[in-house]
Amino acid sequence: QVHLVESGGGLVQAGGSLRLSCAASGRTFDVYAMGWFRQAPGKEREFVAAIMWSGGSTYYADSVRGRFTISRDKGKNTVYLQMNSLNTEDTAVYYCAEASDEDERTWFRLYFTASPYDYWGQGTQVTVSS
């Protein structure tokens, strides 16, 4: 019942930047957190970043910490991923995801996996050229 639509992907040269957006609609009143995952060709989907909806605490994969910034606009039900200093290893389809009404212990134990997330967007392609 929550619909997520990503946008902002595209082709960029190494060292460049992109900003991804994910707009949520529908049943959004019990959102606990939102996150970004990515999947490169031939690889499994991996965690990128997450943000808690109420307090705004952020979580990052080691591979993107210091380069990517996740943020949210609660009034617009939108989450963003600002990606700087992109390299070819960042090439992937990027998916946003929403976790609904999680308990804190479950979140801290599993936020970097797909398990806590109940809804997923369709994905947006990010291609970084060398």
Number of strands: 11
Let me know the average pLDDT: 96
Query: In percent terms, what proportion of residues is strand?
Result: over 45%
Helical amount among residues, as a percent range?
Answer: under 10%
The class by helix and strand makeup works out as mainly beta
Q: Which value, in Å, is the CA radius of gyration?
A: 14 Å
Low-confidence stretches: none
Helix and strand string, N-terminal first?
EEEEEEEEEHEE
Globally, the shape reads globular
Question: What is the distance, rounded to the nearest whole angstrom, between the alpha carbons of the first and last residues?
Answer: 40 Å
Sketch the major β-sheet: 7 strands, mixed
Give the helix tally. Answer: 1
Describe the structure.
This protein is mainly beta and 130 residues long. The strands form 2 sheets. Strands 2, 4, 5, 6, 9, 10 and 11 form a 7-stranded mixed sheet that branches. Strands 1-3-8-7 form a 4-stranded antiparallel sheet, with no helix packed on it. The radius of gyration is 14 Å and the shape is globular. The chain has 1 helix and 11 strands, in the order E-E-E-E-E-E-E-E-E-H-E-E.
